[in-house]
Amino acid sequence: MDHSNHVRLQVDELTENNLEGATIYGPGDEKIGQVSHLHGVGSDAQVVVDVGGLLGIGAKPVAIPISRLDFMRDEAHAVHAVTTWTKDELKALPEHQH
């Protein structure tokens, strides 16, 4: 997917309503996870991403700073994000405890 033409979300758009369920793409443009929920607001928020698993079953939730994700909308207005982290790097993070 070519993300260069996608519209970046503004800070005030980084809400749980907009981000929940968003697909996260890694450096090779592969799907590496999905946003479960947020902790906090704005640029200090933590995004809880479900990594691995199948259809949400067996996925490992990990919390990462929202600043490490570049959220945007595609041509169909679907919100997604790209990151430099790989799926293996995310899976190596400690599991997020609710």
Offer a few descriptive terms.
mainly beta; single chain; 98 residues; SH3 type barrels
- SSE-based structural type: mainly beta
- Average pLDDT, rounded to a whole number, is 91
Task: Give the tally of structural domains.
Answer: 1
The total count of helices amounts to 2
Helix content: under 10%
Q: What percentage of the residues does DSSP assign to strands (E)?
A: 25-35%
Give an overview of the whole structure.
The protein has one domain (about 5-90): SH3 type barrels, CATH 2.30.30.240. It is built from 2 helices and 7 strands. The mean pLDDT is about 90. It has helices at about 15-20, 85-90; strands spanning about 5-10, 25, 30-40, 45-50, 60-65, 70-75, 80. A 7-stranded mixed sheet has the order 1-6-7-2-3-4-5. The chain is globular. By secondary structure, it is mainly β.
Task: Please provide a brief summary of the model.
The chain is mainly beta and 98 residues long.
Which SSEs are present, and which pair or pack?
Elements: E1 7-8, H1 16-19, E2 23-25, E3 31-39, E4 46-51, E5 60-65, E6 70-73, E7 79-82, H2 87-91
Parallel strand pairs: 2-7
Antiparallel strand pairs: 1-6, 2-3, 3-4, 4-5, 6-7
